[in-house]
Amino acid sequence: MTLTAQPSRALQGTIAVPGDKSISHRALMLGALAVGETRVSGLLEGEDVLATGEALRRMGAEITRHQDGTWSIWGVGVGGLKEPETVLDFGNSGTGVRLMMGIVAGHPITATFTGDASLSKRPMGRVITPLTEMGAHIHAREGGRLPLTLTGAERALPITYPLPVASAQVKSAVLFAGLNAPGQTTVIEPAPTRDHTELMLKAFGAQVATEEGPKGVRVIRVTGEPELKACTLAVPGDPSSAAFPVVAALITPGSDITVTGITLNPHRSGLYTTLIEMGADIEILNQRQEGGEPVADLRVKASELKGIEVPPERAPSMIDEYPVLAVAASFAEGKTVMRGAEELRVKESDRIAATAAGLRANGVKVEDLPDGMIVEGRAGTVEGGGHVATHMDHRIAMSFLTLGLGAQKPVTIDAGEMIATSFPDFTGLMRRLGAQLESGANA
Ligand SMILES: O=C(O)C1=C[C@@H](OP(=O)(O)O)[C@@H](O)[C@H](O)C1
Ligand SMILES: C=C(OP(=O)(O)O)C(=O)O
After folding, report:
1. Is 122 annotated among the ligand-binding residues?
2. pLDDT digit string (tens) for 60-80?
């Protein structure tokens, strides 16, 4: 199904975006490894997270949704998952498959992991290497791709693993495998990445210690064989989803919107820091702590943006937000330089290539670099009128619909279906703010 964004009137109103995807995956996973009933409110009911829930059910966790929208997970205890009788399908979700590989690596069971066409192109070698060191046997398709079959260890071997790439998914896979290893499993990150795994492991009663080293290096240690205690969790709103209405309001003249209850965890808020440096009128209101995460409301007004050089070391704290930042940069005055983000090449699509192609289709000049791009801003006037290929990538889809709202002519994307992986009610919420989004036929 194609979707078209029409140039929009001012966006107005207050919305809450759905729960954070990273935190939602981890809530289901740790709930399944805990003893007793974990109760979760605000869980993201996107396809990626639901696939994780389904995989855990097939391995013995009981997971139910209550009528009030909260979820219960009855865990089996660390090491207690049973062998699934069917293939585990993670759809489009890198987080789901990589973190679950870590969990299964610490169980003496065999499971086969698969995913959709996009996920089957993504590199799994980054988790295969450390999990094999920890005692798992993994047989993957050529190049470390899905589908793959993993047989976990009776007891994993605790290792010390320096991450070759700054990846929260790899860090989390190793820490999760370490839960069923005697002694301490250590991960050394070259740069800090999102720390939801560490925060949530602590909330479930595991011992996790983090040491900050020089130049951003972080050492994280988990003590194996804990009894995880079921708990009550409130998932805050997802800053990666909030990015779309926020940028839409910035680039659509006269807009004034509020997005409530999003986590501003410092390892997730790089986009907001960057937009404010570009001159965005974003007020951070009602800052509070919820469920162990810093949470705030954002009031955003249409703004004249200016291009900047985004510090490359900020990349891990905004890695999923580069496509929509590139959209904001198109409306800025001057060039915006984004570097240090080579990981964008191995997401749901090659996001550097897909973003650059989408910008060009809408009259924006962009230079793609191996690790980012340079966008030549059009000082508020972006032509639009483009047809954009999304390559099964939800963030490319939402980014270019966002661009269409502020552009001179409508923008059409070839397929809107993947939006449901992370932001099921995207079109509904954007329409509530006044955006005109129209569905069309199959492309
Ligand atoms: O751990 C997580 O929940 C995530 C980590 C990031 O991936 P990498 O670890 O590959 O950087 C991010 O892109 C993804 O959307 C979610
Ligand atoms: C990269 C993303 O997710 P995942 O790696 O879980 O597929 C994303 O949501 O932008």
Report:
1. yes
2. 999 999 999 999 999 999 999
Residue located nearest, by CA, to atom 12 of ligand 1: 320
- Give distance in angstroms: CA of 95 to centre of ligand 1: 6
Residue 330 is labelled as binding a ligand: no
Could you identify the atom of ligand 2 that is nearest to the CA of residue 25? 6
Is pLDDT at 371 greater than 80 in this prediction? yes
Looking only at the bridges linking them, the beta strands covering 88-89 and 137-141 are: unpaired
Q: What is the 3-state secondary structure (H, E, C) of the chain?
A: CCEEEECCCCCEEEEECCECHHHHHHHHHHHHHCEEEEEEECCCCCHHHHHHHHHHHHCCCEEEECCCCCEEEEEECCCCCCCCCCCEECCCCHHHHHHHHHHHHCCCCEEEEECCCCHHHCCCHHHHHHHHHCCCEEEEECCCEEEEEEECCCCCCCCEEECCCCCHHHHHHHHHHHCCCCCEEEEEECCCCCCHHHHHHHHCCCCEEEEECHHHCEEEEEECCCCCECCEEECCECHHHHHHHHHHHHHCCCCEEEEEEEECCCCCCHHHHHHHHCCCEEEEEEEEEECCEEEEEEEEECCCCECCEECHHHHHHHHHHHHHHHHHHHCCECEEEECCCHHHHHCCCCHHHHHHHHHHHCCCEEEEECCEEEEECCCCCCCECCEECCCCCHHHHHHHHHHHHHCCECEEECCCHHHHHCCCCHHHHHHHCCCEEEECCCC
Ligand 1 centroid from CA 194, angstroms: 8
Per-residue pLDDT tens digits for 185-232: 999 999 999 999 999 999 999 999 999 988 889 999 999 999 999 999
Among protein residues, the one whose CA lies closest to atom 3 of ligand 1: 22
Ligand 1 contact via 95 beta carbon (within 6 Å): yes
User: What ligand is nearest to the CA atom of residue 91?
Assistant: 2
Whether 3-19+236-439 and 21-224 share one fold: the answer is: yes
**Which ligand is closest in space to the CA of residue 343?**
1
Ligand 1 centroid distance, CA of 143 (Å)? 20
CATH 3.40.50.1220 assigned to 3-19+236-439: no
| Topology given in CATH for the domain delimited by 21-224 | UDP-n-acetylglucosamine1-carboxyvinyl-transferase; Chain (3.65.10)
CB of 194 sitting under 6 A from ligand 1? yes
Active site residue ranges: 320
Q: What is the pLDDT of residues 157-172, one digit of tens each?
A: 999 999 999 999 999 9
Domain boundaries, the chain: 3-19+236-439, 21-224
